[in-house]
Specification:
Two copies of one chain form a homodimer.
Chain A (H helix, E strand, L loop, with lengths): L8 H7 L3 H12 L6 H7 L8 E5 L6 H14 L4 E6 L9 H8 L9 E6 L5 H17 L4 E6 L15 E6 L4 H14 L2 E4 L7 H14 L9 E4 L8 H18 L1 H32 L1 H11 L5 H11 L4
Parallel strand pairs in A: 1-4, 1-5, 2-3, 2-4, 5-6, 6-7
Helix pairs in contact in A: 2-6, 4-9, 7-8, 10-11
Chain lengths: ~325, ~325
């Protein structure tokens, strides 16, 4: 990047593979510490070329086991892997992230794998923004594949499409009815459907239902979602899962969809950053500036309504 | 409100107790239909005097049963009640709201009770804003008490304090450890702690733990959270629960905290409205204006970073 100054030592350390510095800067990003900004800024030009694979799905479908086996498969293929487990729910969700940390097989002795849990410290937009920054740090750190797992929410996380280049939606056989309910949402995000626990009764039916859904649905940018069946107890299907992900990544390059997708992700990111910035600035001004405080008082007193005041405030932004 | 024009027919109908019109305008608010705006705006001066009781807590603590019995208690006291069940989770959460609609005892034959489920159609901020509008419609419609239940999220919803005048956090005995984890978050929002399923083993311990927590914690605006034990199977404690809520409402008036709380809620609401407005406007301009599109392209190409572009975009807002 032309205007980038000399590289801060922490940025250089991350590029050179220093995992302790990487972990520290990730914590800074997670905590909203401004010390991370010069590091992420200078590393930005080195990012955007790695597959970022989002793995989402309802609670209890076995996402973590699946990711453990996907990591093992990628190591067999001699690819390095970073995993980010994100809890997009409220900051006080009762320790699910902690549980996940324990549940996860961290492969602590393998330098080709990096694992990190991230809890939400603020609003939902804040987690998505922090997750994007963290995936870029992992990209700059040189990992071949970045996996993003959404944990603890008990639901399909649509925000994954704002972070991932390939999104995997994991389902299990008995969720057939849920698939119907989720239909619109799933097609919004799924590049790959993974029917996990494929050794359970009903797996064939679930797979057939998905095949029908995919056949009926309109393709997004020419890609028809792939459907794979996996079992983490056998285990089976893990190679197929990675092949389906790799096929989507190849499609992105071949079709030009990668750039269009990145454009959509970047637009959504900068809009979110501006929203955050405007919100923070406005909250501060409402505390400090008597004229603005007076408008709030009038809303409290019911002589003005919130929308009228919001319209006025929106006009004062940038005109100090 | 001085600048309010003639009252639209829908607003008049709501004030006069027409439940069909009320339900229709609530749907408009829920769907983001601009037809609702003149109605909510003209009704705004008639709002802000009713208790809005938020009921939150982890999944499975029996919030809905508790609310059913609280409604019954309020009807015994000859108070009319409106209940809004809000699902703050993702729009594709798998039908929990639908399930809740069925689970709920709607007292369809009692004109003194109004029940409404609301699903999230957009981001989290959007639900909170819609919920506030809906509680105000119910206030203008003349209900004596408005109950807001957060459903389907499996977590304590901190956003309830941006809507409710009194917040009730419901826990059950075996969640003792969870209480420790939730400590900070609970104290942030709880005006009343309700230990439900008080007939289960461990209820005394849970209650004692809470008493200790409350004794240790610093009071918010001079209020020390009340702790009540309830059982919906016996049933027992429901009168105590309402008394604790009513005591907090009296405290708000006596101490002047009601106005301070309302000021905080209004500030947070107008900031959120401005954020939404700025985000919508900016997303549209990024589509339409070549100069802004070019900035996004430079981020995609890694010649500018997202934060630099967000800073520039924030400066263009309001300066067209």
């Amino acid at each position: 990047m032309k205007r980038a100054g000399p590289m801060p030592p922490a940025a250089r350390a991350i590029v050179n593979g220093d995992r302790r510095v990487l972990a520290r800067v990730i914590s800074q990003v997670e905590n909203g510490d401004p010390a991370a900004a010069p590091v992420t800024r200078v590393l930005y030009p080195r990012t955007g070329n790695k597959p970022v694979v989002g793995v989402t799905g309802p609670l209890g479908v076995g996402k973590s086991s699946l990711i453990n086996q996907l990591v093992a498969r990628l190591r067999e293929l001699d690819r390095t892997v970073a995993v980010v487990a994100v809890d997009p729910s409220s900051p006080y969700s009762g320790g699910s992230v902690l549980g996940d940390r324990i549940r996860f097989d961290r492969r602590a002795d393998d330098a080709g794998v990096f694992f990190r849990s991230m809890a939400s410290r603020g609003e939902v937009g804040g987690v998505a923004a922090a997750t994007r920054e963290v995936t870029r740090l992992l990209d700059a750190a040189g990992f071949d594949v970045i996996l993003v797992e959404t944990v603890g929410s008990g639901q399909v996380d649509l925000a994954v499409r704002d972070v991932a280049t390939t999104s995997v939606v994991v389902l299990v056989p008995h969720l057939g009815d849920e698939v119907q309910t989720l239909k619109a949402g799933l097609f919004e995000i799924a590049d790959v459907f993974c029917v996990n626990k494929a050794d359970l009764p009903g797996a064939d039916v679930a797979r057939r239902d998905l095949v029908e859904l995919v056949a009926l649905g309109s393709d997004r940018s020419g890609w028809r979602p792939k459907i794979v069946s996996t079992s983490t107890t056998q285990p089976s299907g893990i190679e197929d899962l990675w092949s389906a992900i790799a096929a989507h990544e190849e499609f992105l390059d071949r079709s030009g969809a990668r750039r269009a997708d990145e454009r959509r992700r970047v637009s959504s990111e900068v809009v979110e950053l501006v929203r955050e910035k405007v919100g923070r600035e406005l909250a501060g001004r409402l505390e400090r500036e008597p004229a603005l405080r007076h408008w709030v008082d009038q809303v409290v007193e019911r002589t003005l309504d919130p929308h009228t005041v919001a319209d006025r405030l929106a006009k004062t932004i940038g005109r100090r």
